[in-house]
Every structure is written in C-alpha cells, then in structure tokens.
Design brief:
The protein is an alpha/beta fold and 389 residues long. The chain folds into 3 domains: 5-23 and 126-317, TIM Barrel (Alpha-Beta Barrel), CATH 3.20.20.80; 27-121, Ribbon (Umud Fragment, subunit A), CATH 2.10.109.10; 326-388, no CATH class. It contains 12 helices and 13 strands. The strands form 2 sheets. It has an 8-stranded mixed sheet with strand order 1-2-3-8-4-5-6-7. Strands 9-10-11-12-13 form a 5-stranded parallel sheet. The protein starts with a helix and ends with a helix.
Length: 389
Amino acid sequence: MKSSMIDYIVQFLLLMLIMIEATLIFSYYSHPKMPANIIGYAPYVIGKDDNVLNLQKGDLMIAKIPNRIAKKDDAVCYRDRETIGMGKVIETSKEWCHIENRSQRIYISHHQVIGIKTGKIPYAGNFPTVEEFDAYANKLLDEHVRQYGLDGLDIDMETYPSTSDIALSNGVIRALSKYIGPLANNGTVFVYDTNGSNLNPLKDVADSFTYLGYQQYGSDETRTARAIKDYTGVIPKEQVMPGLAFPEEQDRNRWYDAKEPYEESNIYKVAKYTAENKLYGMFLYALDRDGRTYNNFDLNHIVPSNFLWTKTAILQAKGFSLQDSKDIALHHWKRVGQGKENYQVVLNQINQAQSIYDVNKVLLGSSDNFANDGISPQYDPMYELQLMK
C-alpha cells in the first residue's frame, strides 16, 4: 500500500512528458487530409524520384511541423486543397512562398506549409531496414528525450492507421523499445496513450510499453471497466492507467471530472476503482489546473494550485484508508504546527474529518481560496509518508 516517491512521480506526473501524435508514416502521393506526425515531425515515404528535393523513391523524408516561417531553399510539404505537395522554396514574402516542385512553380501562403524538411533516411527497398528504424528512433530520442534528461516517452494514438502504417509504426516502436521501456531494462518508461479500443496498433508491440494510459476524460469507472475488458489479452489490468482531466485554459471541452462534491466526482470513482482492482495507477491531465472550473475567469487565467484534488486522488488510488490519511496529516501537523495558536484546533479538525478529501482540505485549504484558508498549503501526503518511515 505504501510506495516510494519515485512511484508517485511515475504514476501521476509522467504524462507531463511529450505528448505524441503517433499515427506514423504515409506516402505523400496518397493525399491524406491530415498528415500524421511523431513528436512534432511528419515522416513521408517518397513515392517517386524527386530531383528538385534530391529524394529518391522509397526515401523517408523527415519534415518538422513548422514553428517558423519557411525561408528560401527550404524543402517543404504543403497543403494544396485536398492534397499534399512537396517542393523547394525559391522566393518568399511576408504572405507567400514561391515553390518549385517536380512539375511546376506555384505560389502558396505560409499557412499552407505543414512541414519543413530536417533530414532523410534512405530506403534500401520498399520497407525500412532494421538499421533505418534504429537511426530514426535515435533521432527522436536525441531530440525529444536525451537532450532534456527525461526518463521516458509517451506515444499518443488517437487514429485508425492502415495495415501498412501499422507495420511501419511497429518498426519504430520496436526500435525505440531497445532504448526505453521494459525491454530496455534501464529504468526508463515507455507509454502507450490512447482514448479508444483499437487494438491493432498495439497488439504486436504491447510488450514494448510500461503501461497503457487510457484517456477517458468525462467518464466514470464504468468506462474504465469496459476498457480493461477490451484490452484483455493485450495489456493486463495491472498495466492500465485510466486518465481524467482538469479544465484546461481556454479549452472548449467540458469534461467535469473534478466537479464538487469530491465523493460524487469522476476522479473519486475512478480512483476508487483503480485501488479496488489494483490497476497500475491513474493520471490527471492538465495537472497544473487542479481546482479550476469552467467559469470564465478560470478559463482565461493561470493561477496557482494547492493540488487538493490530485493529492487526494493519489492517496485514494493507492488504497490508503481514511485513518491512514489522518495519520499522515497528523504527523505533518505535529511536525510543523507545534507552538501555533491553532495547533489543537487543527488536530481536532483532522480527527473529525469524514473523508480523505476533508482531511487534506484541513491543511491545504479550499481550491479557490487556499491562500487565506489553507493551514499548510504545501502539505504533500506522499512526501510526509517518507518522513514517517
């Protein structure tokens, strides 16, 4: 029941790592409406030789999703009505790019540019070699994990890739799994993050992942149970981590997972289910928004949080009882509150609390006014637990 601070961090903060749109690879001659991307990059399989861009049929061109305006000599991918094109920028202005492709020169707006070439991986046939997958995996890890000293990666799968795309996806995942996750056996974490029950992109590479992060925003434990059933035989429930969400700033979604009272909320129900069914844990999206609502002020302002909901859900999901929570809170207050005028009053309030949420609220204060009614707003039950050992 009691676990380390590392376990706490892994289960509740890891998903603040990079979120990846991971449908993977497609040919630019297939004219998709939405290009796939991996951690901000879109890999394109070249269908024909392209002398303008110095690309050969079968090459894998890596294009970065733009974070700047395209400039002269950039190789770019662009949207042209319902198709995707490629070309070289030969001239620019503030509003447009003059593009040369294999057959013509055209003018496009900067908004049409959806990718800027950063490199290529030559093909040795119609499917990447093991070495090519490995090179691509290391490129992703170097740029998005290693240079930041991160200990894991999260792949977000929210689409329905084709069989050929899944074959490529499996190759990339297998290559990544040599360096991160359980198969690497180096203490790193590899997460498969999804919001549905499409098993095809996962079933052949499930052993590569540390756990399944299941985005069930706006849902209670009945959806958790349904997801576990759907993934039976692919991912055991002990590797399932359901996730809910706080109100993200300026978001149009309305999930209401953290709606008062706590004991009637989705967070309470899913945390309870997590503990009772011994799941891997649970996660909360937009963690910094703990305690915010969908009112106009909250949606348009960034304000501090006392993490009342998160700290309560952690205790609950880990199976701590009401008495356990009181013991931890009492230990904290006896450690920091000695000699204070309200010392005995706070002890009494903790002892009289009727729920884990109420115990934490005595010390942390309310979500919207903890600066005034919080007795010890920095209180962290899991940290305090370490001090008790």
